């Protein structure tokens, strides 16, 4: 596992930012981390990067404790929110700084990337566009040759073209370097484009985690005559439900075939899943079965 957390929690004074977070992320995946503002996404990424220490529980990244030493720090690349760079330093200054701070720094890769995306090494970062700053920050994260790359909302402020270019470059780097990536984003369409693994955080807790293919194969939308949820088979776990006077529409999780002919059964999308798990849980079906 590239990341493993057990009972992980973080408290700021009296505010719980992350609660009882237990999850495993296999190596070689691009994991989408999604949830509303305040759900704990940035806290989880900062804990994984070693920028924060847990209040409770444990977290292991790349086989070690985050931030525990130079060797451990070299295994993780981190691009924080707003893709921070130093406005007064040139692009070349950033690459020199990267080479001095990172023992596995790949200078040839760094210059190859800035040449490809058209960055002038002599230009100061403060003069770059938002998309160019994001690409510079991604270059710094990739050129340190990490095992795991953590990206916290890196494309939120970018226009659609810059966002597409950023994600294309990210996927090329993943393919070339066999990177594991955790990408936090509110843009579900972007996650569907580049990710194959999902984590949904809600109210500082993990609501669901798994590979896209498995999640899509075990969730369905059912539409049929109005139904009392207590009459459903026990292996059909209701994630969301809506009713009209005559009709019931459900999004359910099940690994068993749906045999009731009264239901019209449709597949769901990742966006359907994310929105359902971020909505209020239905009281008759506990979601802990998926945790």
Task: Please provide a written account of the structure.
This protein has 291 residues and is α/β, with parallel strands linked by helices. The protein has helices at 41-49, 70-73, 91-101, 107-116, 130-143, 160-177, 188-194, 212-217, 270-278, and strands at residues 3-12, 15-25, 30-34, 56-61, 76-79, 148-152, 180-184, 197-202, 205-211, 219-225, 237-243, 247-253, 264-266. Strand 8 (197-202) and strand 9 form a beta hairpin. The longest helix has 18 residues, at 160-177. It is elongated. InterPro entries: AAA+_ATPase, ABC_transporter-like_ATP-bd, ABC_Transporter_VariousFunc, P-loop_NTPase.
The CATH class label of the largest domain is: Alpha Beta
Provide the helix percentage: 25-40%
The helix/strand series, from N terminus to C terminus, equals: EEEHEHEHHHEHEHEEHEEEEH
What's the architecture of the largest domain, going by CATH? 3-Layer(aba) Sandwich
The count of helical stretches stands at 9
């Amino acid at each position: 596992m590239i990341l493993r957390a057990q009972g992980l929690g973080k408290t700021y004074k009296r505010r719980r930012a992350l609660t009882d977070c237990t999850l495993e992320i296999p190596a070689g995946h691009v994991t989408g981390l999604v949830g509303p503002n305040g759900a704990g996404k940035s806290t989880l990424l900062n804990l994984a990067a070693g920028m924060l220490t847990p209040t409770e529980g444990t977290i292991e990244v790349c086989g070690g404790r985050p931030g525990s030493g130079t060797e451990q720090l070299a295994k993780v690349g981190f691009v924080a929110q707003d893709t921070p760079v130093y406005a007064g330093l040139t692009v070349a200054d950033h690459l020199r700084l990267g080479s001095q701070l990172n023992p596995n720094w790949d200078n040839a890769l760094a210059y190859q990337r800035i040449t490809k995306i058209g960055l002038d090494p002599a230009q100061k970062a403060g003069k770059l566009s938002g998309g160019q700053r994001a690409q510079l920050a991604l270059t710094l994260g990739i050129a340190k040759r990490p095992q795991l790359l953590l990206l916290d909302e890196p494309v939120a402020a970018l226009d659609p073209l810059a966002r597409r270019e950023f994600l294309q470059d990210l996927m090329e780097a993943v393919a070339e370097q066999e990177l594991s990536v955790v990408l936090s984003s509110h843009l579900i369409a972007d996650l569907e484009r580049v990710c194959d693994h999902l984590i949904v955080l809600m109210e500082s807790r993990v609501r669901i985690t798994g590979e896209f293919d498995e999640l899509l194969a075990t969730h369905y939308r059912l539409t049929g005559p109005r139904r009392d949820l207590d009459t459903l088979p026990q292996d059909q776990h209701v994630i969301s439900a809506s009713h009209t006077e005559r009709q019931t529409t459900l999004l359910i999780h099940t690994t068993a075939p749906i045999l009731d002919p009264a239901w019209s059964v449709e597949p769901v999308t990742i966006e359907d899943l994310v929105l359902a798990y971020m909505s209020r849980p239905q009281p008759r079906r506990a979601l802990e079965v998926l945790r």
